[in-house]
Amino acid sequence: TQQELDKGRQTHLLRYSNLGSLTRFTFDNLLPKGRSGNPINQEQFNRIYEAAKAFAAEPEGWLVLAGPSGSGKTHLAAAIANERVSQGQPAFFISTPDLLDRLRSTFNTNNEIPYDEFFDQVRNAPLLVLDDLGAQTSTPWAKEKLDQLLNHRFNSELPTVIVAIIPIEQLEDRIRTRLTDPDLCHIYAVEEKQALLGYSWGPEFELQKGMTFDNFDWRRVNLLPEQRQNLEQAFRLALDFAKSPDGWLVFMG
């Protein structure tokens, strides 16, 4: 029946989207003015919210969201992907570190999806949502793959949402020039963190209050390569867990 066909297509689109637990991030459960008590910040967030909704309705060009961790960027980006899926349209969501890990894993001959097939899927996705740009390891190989991906989508003018966790000016030159192109890209700065709970730090936690993902440096020069790699993996696990807590995350050492 048509209902069964529609249900099957929706299931396929959800599986293709790679959203996983982020299917809960929608426009319906995102406050249009954010959670800031500052009217100026509310107005700014509302402009970004409306721009994201408009992009979800009719994806065109690139939408770039920049700002600190916890400001609502990933929720906005996932809401765009979820909205497209709900409309019966394809969208592919992936974080930059996960993308590079998946590409590396496809070199394994036992992998179900060959490297060329997976990379082509990402490069030509009807709508690509690339989260956590700036959290990846800056190796020559990683730079090359990101440059190939973004250059292809830029030249083809394919609809793309990019979430940058570091200031745009700190990105690699070639990536920055793509993201700041005035004809294709629209950049929105989500500047204030969105407080999810009415919790305030006590004076005894003054030191911990300043410990954020934004100022944590896992690229420490005094570490051995293996130690730096382990620290990077722990950082990325913590970042993912903070976005979508599930179960327990235990650090040992």
TrEMBL record:
Q: Which CDD domains match?
A: AAA
- Domain (IstB-like ATP-binding): give its ranges: 62-170
Which Gene Ontology BP annotations are present? DNA replication
What GO molecular function terms would the record report?
A: ATP binding
Any one Pfam family here would be IstB_IS21
**InterPro entries, per the entry:** IstB_ATP-bd (IPR002611), P-loop_NTPase (IPR027417)
PANTHER family linked: ATP-BINDING PROTEIN RV3427C IN INSERTION SEQUENCE-RELATED, CHROMOSOMAL REPLICATION INITIATOR PROTEIN DNAA
What name does the UniProt record give this protein? IstB-like ATP-binding domain-containing protein
Task: Give the originating organism.
Answer: marine sediment metagenome
